[in-house]
Amino acid sequence: MAPTETNKPAPPRHIAIIMDGNGRWAKQRGLPRTAGHAAGAESFRRIANYCRTLGVEYLTVYAFSTENWKRSADEVAGIMRLLRRYLEEALQDMEKNKVCFRFFGDLSKLSPELQKLCRDAESRSTDYDVQVNFCLNYGGRDEIVQAARRFAQDVAAGNRQPEELTEEILSDYLYSAGVPDPELIIRPSGEKRTSNFLLWQSAYSEYVFMNVLWPDFSPSDLDEAIAEYHRRNRRFGGT
Fold first, then answer.
1. How does the average pLDDT of the chain come out, rounded?
2. Which of 12, 48, 55, 191 has the highest CB neighbour number within 10 Å of its CB?
3. Looking at beta carbons, which pairs linking 123-128 to residues 24 or more positions away fall under 8 Å?
4. One of 68, 120, 154, 216 is an active-site residue; which one?
């Protein structure tokens, strides 16, 4: 049972979500997978707006992984069309919605049009109520490899020394540089795996797995995940 409005616990500062289950949602209804992604996009709008009302400062969502390119060309194209449409609408309404955007991942494989929309969204973002981080063409292992390469390049250029490397310095080379690690990571759909999502940042995150497909994920589900987070004893390796 979700908490009532009067006793609802304060949310974590940073919530991350693996938006999973769009395809199964569509299959259950005899619809094409693209219909599931469209329903998932509406669920994202609903949850992003709700996070703003709760006071969540950062929302990070797994929009498209480095492995998702293996899906059919039609499905990939459908996902990209949805993302393009969302960004076009968001650019028109950024001031009204008070949401700023950032993108984690290798955007170079996206179409030039979509890359420009991503850059425009980031450049027009200001210090609004909530920052939404889209993990787009993103993989946690790839992110760490890219960070290591950038550090090595700085070493080769004489800007760094190998012995300077610390966890904090490596974090500055990640896509998420400057963003606090998520306290809570939610995976709907009933699956119980991390799927290469925020591997570095999730070292001490609390995972909540839920048996609801992403298009059906509601504000009350988010309330329940936050309530479960507050039931956990976060010791960070201590006693």
1. 92
2. 12
3. 124/91, 124/94, 125/94, 125/100, 125/101, 126/100, 127/100, 128/94, 128/97, 128/98, 128/99, 128/100
4. 68
What tokens were used for 187? 């995976």
Percent of the chain exceeding pLDDT 70 equals 95
Q: Which residue of the set 20, 181, 221, 223 is catalytic?
A: 20
CA 191, distance to chain mean position in Å, is 17
Spatial separation of the C-alpha atoms in residues 97 and 159, rounded to whole Å: 41
Report phi then psi at 62, rounded to 5: -85, 100
Through-space distance between the first and last CA atoms of the chain, rounded to whole angstroms = 30
In terms of Cα–Cα distance, which of 17, 9, 4 is closest to 187? Answer: 17
| 154: annotated active-site residue | no
d(CA 135, CA 196): 11
Neighbour order of strands in the sheet with 184-187: 99-104, 130-138, 58-65, 14-18, 184-187, 206-209
Phi-psi region of 121 (alpha: psi -120 to 50; beta: other; left: phi over 0): alpha
68 is catalytic: yes
pLDDT in tens, 93-118: 777 778 889 999 999 999 999 999 99
Q: At CA 201, angle to CA 196 and CA 203, rounded to 5?
A: 90
Q: H or E element: which one contains 85?
A: helix 73-97
pTM of the full structure = 0.91
Nearest to 97 by CA among 166, 157, 46: 46
pLDDT at 65: 95
